[in-house]
Amino acid sequence: MEVKKLSISWQFLIVLVLILQILSALDFDPYRVLGVSRTASQADIKKAYKKLAREWHPDKNKDPGAEDKFIQISKAYEILSNEEKRSHYDHYGDAGENQGHQKQQREYRFRHFHENFYFDEPFFHFPFNSERRDSIDEKYLLHFSHYVNEVVPDSFKKPYLVKITSDWCFSCIHIEPVWKEAVEELEGLGVGIGVVHAGYERRLAHHLGAHSTPAILGIINGKISFFHNAVVRENLRQFVESLLPGNLVEKVTNKNYVRFLSGWQQENKPHVLLFDQMPVVPLLYKLTAFAYKDYLSFGYVYVGLRGAEEMTRQYNVNVYAPTILIFKEHIHKPADVIQARGMKKQVIDDFITQNKYLLAARLTSQKLFHELCPVKRSHRQRKYCVVLLTTEATKLSKPFEAFLSFALANTQDTVRFVHVYSNRQQEFANTLLPDSDTFQGKSAVSILERRNTAGRVVYKTLEDPWTGSESDKFILLGYLDQLRKDPALLSSEAVLPDLTDELAPIFLLRWLYSASDYISDSWDSIFHSNWREMMPLLSLVFSALFILFGTVIIQAFSDSNEERESSPPDKEEAHEKTGRTEPSFTKEPSSKIPKKGFVEVTELTDVTYTSNLVRLRPGHMNVVLILSNSTKTSLLQKFALEVYTFTGSSCLHFSFLSLDKHREWLEYLLEFAQDVAPIPNQYDKHFMERDYTGYVLALNGHKKYFCLFKPQKTVEEEEAMGSCSDLDSSLHLGESRGKSSGLGSRPIKGKLSKLSLWMERLLEGSLQRFYIPSWPELD
């Protein structure tokens, strides 16, 4: 009895909690959360969402309930910004996200209420839902506009590590502890961190190429690389390190340190050396080198390496603590030093920022000119630039060394010392120099102040060339002292042209760099990117390769067929040259033999008979030349010349038939053209000696008919067109090939002299057709 009462009490408690949670879920009204009416437009909804999101964002609002409020605002905007979800909510009171499985989910939830009793929209919540998300993710949440406008430009100064997550993601829970540890370490080193919620930022997730969660990717120089290893702290650290270029930090030893430090003149940068006991370059130092790669060159000295004592002794370095030295124009003495155990990023950044430029940097680009000589903002923020205009030299000239020593002795916050190579920046130098021959081939010094970004400056050029003497230094120092009291000393005005970028790579190098980056990205994409994105590119590549190799194979087979056709024998050519010719043929202009490949003529044999005739496609015809072994070469040459102009038609095919092999097949076919070529009695003694060489048959394999071209007998006889017209001439071209003097007296090629006219009538369809019941077999 007590067990029964306890069971009833337990069931009543469950029902009560369910009712309360359902009422709480139904109480969620997206219109009320955003403060808009049910008839509000998308523009009004978006405007209200932006206003509330800025007000309740956890980073700006310290209210304890700000996080929950912000999640409600995001959820409300997700429903109302989607017309389908909004319509479903207006009709049924929910967004319809679980419509397909509501019944199954409800049964599952009620069966397992004792295991997990949290409600989600519109009913149950699980512990890994977005509303229970750790605040560490909220801090780094990215939106599409934030990614495009801030993260991508900032990725050229530091790499970003981004995690793609979503609701209902069990694997996201598993990697959360490792992710927290990695974020705490890498963010302190200067790595950017981001989190993208695929449910709320689908556009950004798709843009990044993340089609599943969880996913981790790195962004550097605007390029995206996916992490594919096990999610452990060391792998994430190595992944970030692999994103960085490999040539950021140069290994410096006692053998190359002089060359490294002497590169300031060519690179126009200060050089930084880090002395440490670690055999590998620390990640913090690599990230610093990447952030300031445009301003300084970085080197690393492993103090445990043999021979490092020379450098440590020369520069008085304490090998038991990390030490950073910055060298400018003087390689034997560092311009600044910092030494500390456990050096922090902020300390290094402040130290580097104070030493970004040389004492007297060379103006090599307009960007550097803007940074070194900024535009005057107010009377209290005046910045003067002392410019040395000198010629380029392999070694430091005396005027430059004197200018450098003067800059070192007179360093001020309001004055910046720079120099320009006159031969590289001629327009810039000519604008500041007076029109006279006084400064021809000599150095000069100008003091200028920029007034606007368009190039307008006020300046004062020293009257005499700069030689670096003590008097020159005294005059320059006097001008600078006078400027503090009277800025009107700069009486000349001019508009300076933009400086040319001296250090920019030439076009070929830029093209090679771009090609290298593209190949590297493509290689990485093939092996690591999502295959759904790579399928169009792979399809295009394989299609192109298939067409290319297919064309090569077809051409190879075509060439092999042509090579099998033998060339004219020498004795046949000799016979043609010695034989007599008739007058009418001598008048015919001599034509050159067509080049190989112009006309493709195949032999009609038992192998090719079916494909070239019996199963010929509808509308196609095969033009067959009848020849013998002795006349093969001559007739084929003339045949090619006559039909060459008709080879452009794709419905015509050209073949030849050997009379010595297939005479019976030809005799059977000619029986259906008795009015043209009557076949004599088989007991005729000259039956096997009838001459059919030079006959041409146009065979239509599909409709089973043919047209006949019969060569003329003699020149004096009527020219037989050979068409399927009324021709009653006898087949006797001679009693025999051995006895007939008519055939032997004219060239064999003359038999086909009118073939081109017959071909024209064939294409016109004006020739007589002879039909046949079926094609005989070709033995």
UniProtKB/TrEMBL annotation:
It comes from the Eukaryota. This is DnaJ homolog subfamily C member 16. Keywords: Autophagy, Endoplasmic reticulum, Glycoprotein, Membrane, Signal, Transmembrane, Transmembrane helix. GO terms for biological process: autophagy. Plays an important role in regulating the size of autophagosomes during the formation process. Residues 561-580 have a biased composition (Basic and acidic residues). It is a single-pass type IV membrane protein. Residues 560-592 are annotated as: Disordered. SUPFAM superfamilies: Chaperone J-domain, Thioredoxin-like. The keyword Transmembrane applies. The gene is DNAJC16. Residues 1-25 form the signal peptide. The keyword Thylakoid does not apply. Pfam families: DnaJ (PF00226), Thioredoxin (PF00085). It is found in: Endoplasmic reticulum membrane. Its main location: endoplasmic reticulum. One of its GO terms (cellular component) is endoplasmic reticulum membrane. Residues 117-245 form the Thioredoxin domain. Residues 29-93 form the J domain.
